[in-house]
Amino acid sequence: MLPGRGSNGRAAGAGLSRLLGTRTAWTAVGDGEFFCPGCGGDRNYQRLTGHRRFALLGVPVLPRGGTGPVVECAACQRHFGTDVLDHPTTTRFSAMLRDAVHTVALAVLAAGGTCSRASLETAAAGVRAAGFDDCTEEQLAALVEALEADTGRFTGEPCTAGLAIELHEALDPLAPHLAAPGRESILLQGARVALADGPYTPGERDALATVGAALAICSDDVTRLLAAARTPS
């Protein structure tokens, strides 16, 4: 038998680990709420930095440098890399999704230039389904009128720089956290608003192309999805 193997070797190793080891002293440097991958839900966290030391008989004696930072879940006590904080909480994600659907609906209505009753009803239904339970057709119409009066940015013409900025601000932060079907669903909801009162206008097509770009959907897929939306299911 090789040296150090077998029951005697394992016992010796266990004894040595009790004599010598490494200890980490953690210091809290921040806290907040995050989506815990371990728990699968929103939890409180502490952001920690640590200092490692050699320990003799459990007593730290020699420094070994820093470690971390890490994020510690207050519920499950597990440690994660700080990149977990890039993922929005469930509450924040829901708000981002509501804002995205609302912004897309307003952009398509404004780009269409008419705000027909059918378009308003389709837009309001989509916005309510996204979480704005009290959204009405009248509210959307008033918002579109306010946008058109705001220095003439939205007049039913092809997508202006101001409109593109509005869409990117709402959609860029959301896109990395949505799978492809979720991103396509937002684009298709906008397409349904545009088609509610007839074929796409040039302004609506341009706005929807901007929506697709902000959602990281390639132009070929945008064309395919907009064509599919015209086909009755």
From TrEMBL:
InterPro entries linked to this entry: DjlA_N, TerB-like
Gene3D superfamilies: TerB-like (1.10.3680.10)
Source species, domain of life: Bacteria
Pfam assignment, any one: TerB
Domain Co-chaperone DjlA N-terminal: 100-224
Protein name per UniProt: TerB family tellurite resistance protein
Organism of origin: Streptomyces pimonensis
